[in-house]
């Protein structure tokens, strides 16, 4: 079966490392912040790096991007994953550009402060102007350090703009109903989704075998602490998992981790792309099973069952 057991809507709605945007720093629509005269030139240097960083991002130059960071820098991306060290950060962007290509990046600096002569704290927001994540915005905090007269990023944390909990699941209401996914050699997986707990959650049950026996269940809801759609996955054998979701236009990207009943751990990025109310595609990338990398899957077509409606 192309869709691995234990992945839940880990199988059908998804997440990527991806990024909604790079965490970075510098300025398309910049807010002018008053700083002391002593740091005016430092602020201008940091802001002037914006254009160079954006050019590197637009050119899909992961090496040039990594050069803006200190050798031991830390980057926490929009899905909460930590990338430690310049080489790991370069690999992160290499993977992104390999999957999605170059993307014009817009950044808006809201503030730059200097708690010490060699430390700067920058806050702002960023978004991709077009492409796979067009229009989506994220917030970032970047800590710069000055070494040998050069400002570099030592730590960057990126977070998603929180949406309203009231509307958190509204954009998934088209998923309500019964569906069939068709994989290699016409193998199929059936699943049924419905509202639960007074519309505060979506419950998804996966059915396998000729008798369509319930095999997995996923509960999708809203986590107000992180301002994200999340899901919990439960396997009939005793395995379980957790995923964080991110909307990208008509697609959803989900980063998920699971633990099998024997203690085996797996993770992956799962992408569901809505075609219309009756069709979508699913694929997974960046899959890992107990430390071993698995190949990415192709897009798998999923069709609403005849007579099913939301």
Task: Characterize this entry briefly.
This protein has 310 residues and is mainly β.
Helix-strand blueprint:
Blueprint: H1 40-58, H2 62-66, E1 69-76, E2 82-84, H3 86-100, E3 105-116, E4 119-128, E5 137-147, E6 150-160, E7 177-182, E8 188-196, E9 201-208, E10 213-223, E11 228-235, E12 240-248, E13 251-259, E14 265-276, E15 279-289, E16 292-293, E17 300-304
Parallel strand pairs: 1-6
Antiparallel strand pairs: 1-2, 3-4, 4-5, 5-6, 7-8, 7-17, 8-9, 9-10, 10-11, 11-12, 12-13, 13-14, 14-15, 15-16, 15-17
Can you offer a commentary on this structure?
There is one protein chain. This protein has a ten-stranded antiparallel β-barrel with strand order 7-8-9-10-11-12-13-14-15-17. Strand 4 (119-128) and strand 5 form a beta hairpin. The radius of gyration is 21 Å and the shape is elongated. It has three helices and 17 strands. The chain has two domains: 8-17 and 165-304, Calycin beta-barrel core domain (Lipocalin); 37-160, Nuclear Transport Factor 2, Chain: A (Roll), CATH 3.10.450. The model is unreliable at 1-36 and 131-135 (pLDDT under 50). With 310 residues, it is mainly beta. Helix content is 13%, strand content 47%.
């Amino acid at each position: 079966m192309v869709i691995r057991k234990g992945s839940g809507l880990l199988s059908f709605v998804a997440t990527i490392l991806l990024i909604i945007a790079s965490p970075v720093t510098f300025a398309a629509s910049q807010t002018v912040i008053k700083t002391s005269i002593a740091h005016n030139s430092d602020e201008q240097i940091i802001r002037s790096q914006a254009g160079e960083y954006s050019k590197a991002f637009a050119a899909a130059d992961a090496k040039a991007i990594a050069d803006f960071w200190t050798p031991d820098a830390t980057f926490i991306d929009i899905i909460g994953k930590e990338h430690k060290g310049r080489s790991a950060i370069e690999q992160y962007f290499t993977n992104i550009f390999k999957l999605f290509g170059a993307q014009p990046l817009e950044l808006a600096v809201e503030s730059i402060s200097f708690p010490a002569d060699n430390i700067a704290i920058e806050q702002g927001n960023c978004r991709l102007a077009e492409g796979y994540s067009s229009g989506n915005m994220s917030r970032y905090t970047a800590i710069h350090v000055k070494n040998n007269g050069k400002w570099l990023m030592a730590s960057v944390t990126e977070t998603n703009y929180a949406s309203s909990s009231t509307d958190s699941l509204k954009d998934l209401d088209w998923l309500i109903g019964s569906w069939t996914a068709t994989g290699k050699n016409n193998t199929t997986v059936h699943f049924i989704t419905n509202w639960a707990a007074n519309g505060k959650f979506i419950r998804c049950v996966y059915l396998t075998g000729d008798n369509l026996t319930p095999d997995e269940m996923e509960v999708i809801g809203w986590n107000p602490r992180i301002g994200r759609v999340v899901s919990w996955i439960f396997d009939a054998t005793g395995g379980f998992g957790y995923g964080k979701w991110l909307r990208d236009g008509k697609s959803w990207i989900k980063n998920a981790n699971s633990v099998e009943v024997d203690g085996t751990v797996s993770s992956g990025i799962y992408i569901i792309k809505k075609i219309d109310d009756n069709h979508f595609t699913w694929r997974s990338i960046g899959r890992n099973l107990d430390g071993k990398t698995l190949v990415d899957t192709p897009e798998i077509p999923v069709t609403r069952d005849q007579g099913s409606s939301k």
